[in-house]
Write a structure and sequence with these properties.
Blueprint lengths: L1 H12 L4 E2 L2 H5 L14 E4 L3 H14 L3 E4 L16 E4 L6 E5 L4 E5 L4 H8 L4 E2 L12 H7 L6 H4 L6 E7 L5 E5 L11 H5 L8 E8 L1 E2 L3 E9 L2 H13 L6 E6 H11 L9 E9 L1 H16 L3 E6 L3 H12 L1 H5 L5 E4 L2 E2 L5 H14 L3 E7 L4 E8 L4 H20 L18 H4 L2 H14 L17
Length: 461
Amino acid sequence: MENNYICELEQIVNPENVITSFEERLTYSYDSTRLEYMPDVVVRVKNAEQISQIMKLANEYKIPVTPRGAATGLSGGCLAVEGGILLVMVDMNRIIDINPVDLLITVEAGVITEKVSKAVEHLNLFYPPDPGSMKSSTIGGNIAENAGGLRGLKYGVTKDYVNSIEAVLPTGEIVTMGANTVKAVTGYNLADLMCGSEGTLSIITRATLGLLPIPPDRVSILAFFKDMTDAAKTVRDIVAGGVITATLEIVDNVTINAIEDFLKIGLDRTVGAMLLIEVDGQKGAIEAEADIVIRTCKSNSVLSVRQAKSVQERDKLWEARRAALSSLSRIRPSTILEDATVPRSRMVELVNAINEIAKKYQMMIGTFGHAGDGNLHPTILTDLRIAEEAKKTEKAIEEIFKATIALGGTLSGEHGIGITKAQYLKLEISKPVYNLMKNIKSVFDPNNILNPGKMKCTWDI
């Protein structure tokens, strides 16, 4: 039977796009987590019709199918947990249409996120979602994980810009969900259901996304504090003071030092935390907002606060923030990036909890993230090859999540559940709600072949 389905795959996509050798399959067995799962066969696809035929074949033979984009995910969502067929979609990378009147762009699922904005910037437009992986992640993966980013506070996340999608259902039908109008309430909002479904309900093949005019001006502000608590209080007070900043990022001392070791851009290594803040909009309005931001910083024991004086200085500041994870990953052999999100009003408590957990387990944890929307990325720096370190790491992660839930938060703000957080689902989701999710899955995927093994709660184990 195995040889039969491999031959049939080769008839659908041509033999050169069907990969069966161990060495080549090994390169597709991992993503940006520390996990590894080997697919039985890797298939590079080019269009929805090919995917449709493959899904029909997979249903016939009951073969698991896992969609994969650029593999930048941080929860194991594109790993072939149960083997089977791994669908690689990076060749589906065309920009189909740009509509500047309706502020829409239609792209295939394999288009790199950053290229969406670059494709429309000559029209003075941009695509607001900007995940940290925007230079390499794909739109299909962004939709599957409902990716966030630095601009989430003011501009929202991926789902806020998905008007309609074309997708292949697990049973092979090609469907379109959503509408390219400003308002649409015809039936259930299935396009929104696909956002954050982690590739378990359909395979997204193209999407029509919303755009916005580029703000005419922006100001970047850098503020240093003696500790994370003062910085977190400032975040809360900025928003309470009526300013919704374009970005509002927090970085702790561990991460500041890692960035400075990496980039050598003159950051103060002695401070406890820094905030990177940007306001954008009309010139007069942002000057007033920047003034409020600076005054708020000063009322929270800021050590120093300044505006970027040039485009070059501004870009250097944001380069530093985007380099946070790569800088931290240079310190220890294992880097565990987590994704804890709480209401903004509880962020001070979460910061304190993370610091206490780090002390308890004598671990180095670098914390940075999108403070404006309560989304922190505590990053554990360890060596999982050492059994004692691995055990401490798991305990620390569990305590971080328990603290997050106790503060009214959620397990994931933007990375998804996948494999890495499935064991913690029970902390946040009740059994009736989990069963409802399973029932929805069974309607879309009666044979449970599309991306199986993901978001699997301990109630099932």
